Each structure stands twice: as C-alpha cells, then as structure tokens.
Amino acid sequence: MAGEYFLSSDVQLPVKLLVLNAHGSSPEMTASEPPLSYTDFLSEKTGMAACDMYVSCQLHTYGRQYGEGRTCNAPGSRLRWNEWVSFRGKYASLSPDAFLTLAVCGSDGPRASRVVGTARLALFDESQQLRTGVVKLRLRLSGGEAAEGEPAAEELEEMAWLDAVSSRHERVLAQPDPELDWLNRPTYAFLEEKQQDVERRLERHFISVQLPEFEYPVIFHERRCQLPPSRHVVATPRGQSGRQGENASATLHDAPIVLLADSEQYRDNPALLKHHKLARSLLSAGFAKELKPDAEERRRLAALVESPPTQRLREEERELMWKFRYSLTSEKNALTKFLKCVDWGDTREVQNARQLLQQWVPVDVPDLLELLGTAFGHTAPWVREFAVAALRERATDGEVLSYLLPLVQAVQYERNAPTSPEASPLAALLIHRAVANPELANFLHWYLYVERRDQRHGEHFGRVHDAFLDRLRVSQPGTFEALQQQEEMVSALSLAAQQLKASSESRPKRIQRLRAMIEQPGGVLSGLCSLQRPLMMPLNPTIRVVGTVAEKATVFKSAMSPVGLSFQLALSGSQSAAHASLGAHTPHSAPQYSIIFKGGDDLRQDQLVIQMLMLMDKLLREQGLDLKLTPYRVLATSPGEGLVERVPDCLPLAQVLQENRNDIRRYLQQLHPAPHAPYGIEPEVLETFVKSCAGYCVAMYVLGVGDRHLDNLMLRSNGALFHIDFGYILGRDPKPFPPPMKLCKEMVEAMGGADSILYDRFRLSCCEAFNILRASSNLILNLLLLMVDANVKDIKGEHDVLKVTEKFRLELSDEQAARYFQELINDSVSALFPQITETIHRWAQYWRS
Where does the PI3K/PI4K catalytic domain lie (predicted)? Predict the structure, then answer.
C-alpha cells in the first residue's frame, strides 16, 4: 500500500549483505589477443592468483567500527564469492551515516596479505532510506598503478551517467511493456554500443553486493528515550502535610530509577559558545593590557599554572587565562596553559598569541617538550618552531640524550612531514645534534631504525633516518661505518638466535652449538670472534670491544632461547671508568662486557622504563640523593628483537632466600663479613641495600610496575637491589590485589625490622625521593605523553599517563605527601595477598623446572 514504510529503529535484524563478484573493464583487456577476462587481467595486474583473493567487510556506525570484521572465503578460479556476510550490529542501532567498507585482499606470501582494492557503501541514501537490492560499488585499487588509472572528471561524469541510465533501463526490462518494444530495442542497442566504447577507453573496477529486501521501504529513525511513567511521579498539593506527604515521599523513594540517554549532553551549547566568543572579543589587546587580577583571581591563576599537563582546562578556566594573559607573560610555567586557551580558528586570537609569545619570559625545557606533543598538534606551525628553537638554545646534549626516545616519537607529529626531513624543525634539530655527537648518533640511529618499520608513520621515520645517514656519511664517516658494523652484528645475532630457537636439542647442546658458531670458520658468529677494528657497542657507545669470548657464550633457559655473549673490552680511560661502575671485572680477570640478545620479545616497553629510571636517578643525584639504582641498559633493535645489558655478580632474590634460609643478611655476611659492625656486615653494603630498596620502591610505584615477584628482583654482591622484566606498567598487573610497591618482609628483616634505625632511614629516603620526583612531575609526565603513539604495549593514550599523575598526588604539600607515602609503605609490608601469590609463584617455578 502506498505510503507504508518501516522505521529502522524497529528492525531488530542483524545487518548483512551478499558479496557477489568483482568485475570491470580496461583497455588492456580488449587490446589483448585473445581478449583477457577481468579475472585474468586483475591477477596479472596485482601479481596474485584469483583463488588467493578474499573480501574483508567491516561495519561502521557513529564514526567508529562496530564489532569485528567479517571475511568471505577465496572465490576459486573466478572472482565470484556469492557468500552472505552477517554482522553483530542491528539495523535498529545504526546511525544515519552508517556505512560498510569492503576490502579485496590477497595472500602475499605464507603469512602476509595485501589489500588489492577497497570500496565503501553508505547504508542509507540521501533521503535517509535504507538501500536494498543489488548495488554495484566502485573498487579503488591500491598502490601506484591504481593512481595512474584514475579517470578524469569528465570521464567519471560519463561513467556515472551510463551506470544510471543502464540501471534504469534494466528495471524497465524487468517488467517489459509490449507497446514500448519499438523504443526499447534501439535504446538497448545504443546503450550496448556506448558500454563497449567506454570499456575500450576507460579502466573501471567494481564489486557487486546484494542487500536484503524488505516488504516496505526502511526509513532511518532514532528512537527517543522514554520519560518515566506518570504513575511514578507523585505531587503533594500545596499546603497539604501530615500522612499524605509522608506517603508521597515514600512513593517517590520506592519508584525505580529511570536512566535517560541524552544524546546531546556532550555537545557544546551554541548560545554559550556565542557568549564566550563575544566576551573574548571585547577583551581587545589594548583593554586586556590594563587588567590586573585580584587576590582570588591570582589564587585561581596560580593553581592553573601549577596544574599538571594532563589536566584539561574547563571553559571558565580558559576564559580566566585569556582575560589576564598579559599579566602571565612573566610566568614561565604559564605559557603552555595560555596556548591551550587560544581559539586557533580565530585569526585575531592567533595573531595576538604570536605577539605575546615574543614577550614571554624564557620557558623551561619540560614545558617546551609539552609543546611538541599531540595536545598542540592542531595549533599553528610557529608554536612548534618556537619550541624547537628554544630547545636548540637551552637543551644541552646531555638533556637531549636523556629525552631522546620521546623526542624521536614526537617527530611523527611534524606538520610538514610529507615535504622533507630537513624542513621538519624537530627532525632537523636531532639530526644536527647527532651528527656532532657519536653517542647521540648511536641511539638516534637505532630508535629510527626500529620506528621506520611502523605501519602508520614508518614512511616518514624512514625519510628522517635516510637524511640522517646521508649527513653522517659525509660529515662523520667513522661513526657511519661504526653503525654499519653494529647492524652486521645484530643481523648475525638474529640469525643465530633463530637457528637455536628452531633447534629441538637440549640446552647444553644448544650452548655447544652457539660456541661452535663463534669458533668455527664460516660460522654465523665467526665474524665476532676477533674483530679487525673495535666495535662500538649499541647499548653503550662509550664502550668498544675487540672480540667475543666463546667459552662464556650461553643460551638461557627460556622458550625464546635468549643468547648471552661476553665481549673483550678495548679499554681507554673513560671506557674503563664507565664499565667499572657496573663492576664488570675483577683485577684477576680480563675486562669483559656481557649482553643478552632476545629474539621474539618486544623490548620497547622495557626500554622506556629503563630510560625513565635513568632520568629519575639523574634527578635524584642532582638533589644530592644517590639511591644506588642500577639502570642496566636495554635497546630494541626491531619490534621483536633487542639487546639487554647483563649486570654481573647478581642473583634473583628468590634464589638468595632459598639458599640462605630466607635471610638476606646471611647472604651479605658471607660476601662482606665485618665482625665488629652491626649485623656482622660492612656498613656500606647495608647502606647500599637500604638505599636501593628505597629508590626502586618509589620508582616502581610512580611507574605503576606490576607482576613483581622474587624472581624479577635481583640482588648484587655489593648489596644493591634492582628490578628486571617490565612487562606490566601503569597499574597493570596479572595478579589480583597487588600492593602499592614490592616490599616483602624478608627485605624489612634485612634492615633490622620495622623498629630499626635502618628501616627509619629507608622510609625517610622513600619520602625524600618521592618529593624530589614530584617536583619534576611535569618533565616525567610530558615525556610519557610523547610516548602515547609509540607502540608501547601499556601506553595507548593520555588516560594511561593520567595514572602516573594520580600517583604523584600533586594536590598534597610535601609534608602531606611524605605522610601519604609512609602509609603506602605500611600497607605494602602488611599486605597478605601478595604473600599468597608469591607462594603460588614459587610452586609454579618448581614444577616448571
């Protein structure tokens, strides 16, 4: 019946479609002798057989993917699938802009796939009616060849006209009228001739799908939320009181809670926006210069200036900052907050902000780092140029080295990345500094080497890396050759690790095989046995080695078969001092440097944690607090491989306790006996143990490191405790109810118990370190914010960095923060559940061995 239809909100059926076939035409098909079929043509064009091609479909609604994608199987020898694809989403839950994406993919190797072409289908047409029946979609081929075959605008218009007329004529032929047969025949002949002409001249690619038919048209409709029934709303007449009023209150109290979905709750109020716009326009530059904040406004401004970079400013706070912007130019910490208040769509505000930027007092490096992150990606290019120019003037090479890992990640936000790396301000700065500094060059090379394999930004990172290597080859050929030598070493280690992992031999035989790879001529690692020129170590470029000690090579007990190697050092004065800090050799042994090569592990998260530990150690030392941290070095050499520095003379705390009757002091007494000292141990060793416990308690708490057990806590022979394996950070932990920090009772007993002087020193060191790091919270947070797009497993967005902000408790004074941290220590020592999980972990380790 005319005028009848369905509402989409009433259709509680899953969205589905029938994928039919891929078809098209090309001048190459008709020019070939004999003419090629479309299947043969597409196979030849893409280099993939038709039987290896499949279709991947994805539903999108409300601007995001809905559920998982669906896949059609390979079509056989022809590009015909004829397969129904059903999605989780229902028609009732679709938005007016809902659409389907189809990707024709093909196998490109045993484990790889490649997209051949993509198509898009809007589920509702211009009149908001659901599409039905057979739909022919234009298939856009991927790659450069597709771009060359893209038709011109007039050709597109001709093709669209032909498709529309053909589909209209097909509908007429479906219900033929004998009286119009005289007109249909010549029309059909004309269209057929036109079709052949287009196929001879233009290249067209299509994929046809069929959408379900309904009895009546389906019109888009979004169901409004229902108000609560009137029976739940009870009114008391004016002036009425007593029992009736009490009954009314009881009825309201017993009424069920009704949740109302307000679809506009997160939208800006246009009237309020207009008001703010007019109010800001009244604060012209001349008038605003004369404004001075009163006492309350100064208090609010001071709180905003000191707020962490992760805090979002409310509209009234933005208005306050803008109103008194001229009064803030003498506040170096206020610049980033002011720039967040600028309306970057308003030309006058942007010009005013640029003028004010020239008047601002010099800004500290932590705030400059914030200007390089995603929060300022939408601003004018001169903001980034200002930050990079200030970094060039104020940041030393040592600071750049400390921040290099996050700075490399910030390169991906360069606005003019498609042009050239030299035109990207931050990339140009890093290249300039690295060319003049071999240590910076070493780490910049490996960070870019890994990032150029990123699927999203790898192309840009590759251009930056190539530009850096070109400059280095010309300016510093020695450093360039050293980096090439490192790549050769890493490639050899990767190949050796793969061969050992694939072997089904026992661990002793794999160790023998590894040593044979080094000693035997022609072995995979024979080139490392004795080096013709010293090798600059990627983990520590201040260290150079001259060969590998074959008898020290080992394969660790793990599914990934990590390889351990020891290198003979080529010592100079500075290298000897740097290496001696780890206690790598004794006077009775040749100096060596040991590493672990891990294949099959993504070390980028461990690398970040170690970088943050090194930064925290530096911040603490600058304030005169040395907590004896051991930030061993970690370097990712690819997304699935990397190098780890081996710390000599250390054991897992679990092994120390097992072999010494759960007594850490007994272990230290054996190594450093002092009969007349307290507890029979050299005081310096106990002091080192206490300080290192305090340092790692604070650092692990701030970074939210999880999965702490006695096998990833290590104890060095000099009494220094340190942590390894950072697979869980920022509050993530595979075990339930983790304590705030790993502080077991055996560690407290080693200090003499909870009433001892050493334990008091431990708590004071923790509180002092916590407050020092809180004072540098902006630096730590800004560096972590630069890592949100770095493919680090546990940092997926700004919300993860907010967890670190919460840990700092920046709303507390230093005295309050010290009391708060002492409470955390008490909670961690008395936590019962970690003791249970530790016992379970020991059982698991026993049965695993």
Answer: 549-833
